Amino acid sequence: MDNDKFIELCKEKVVDYTNTFMNLNSISQPIHISTGDVYVVWLNRTLQNNKALLSTTVSNGMYYEVTYNGDKNEMYFDAYKHKYNEEIKLDK
User: Fold this and answer.
1) What is d(CA 7, CA 13) in angstroms, rounded to the nearest whole number?
2) Are 12 and 18 in contact (CB under 8 A)?
3) Any idea what DSSP says for residue 63?
4) Using CB atoms within 10 A as the burial measure, which of 20, 52, 81, 84 is most buried?
5) What digits encode the pLDDT tens for the residues 50-74?
6) Taking the model in full, what pTM does it have?
């Protein structure tokens, strides 16, 4: 699978997940995004395998990891919630 097709599939999966699962327990405004609201943070291709980290313009702390296993023609989708961030100063 080439990178463009992989990214397209990744964005579609993030849109499906966001528009479905992010609205199940929502008490505020419903969320509805399109692939234009999804962006690739990081992308890697090794042989016939791909991996991408993605996020959306929705400020909910979610990010997504999609992996394509070319040997089995399978995609794996993980959704994560950002929980913690700390700035660590390093000595020069």
Assistant:
1) 10
2) no
3) E
4) 52
5) 999 999 999 888 999 999 999 999 9
6) 0.85
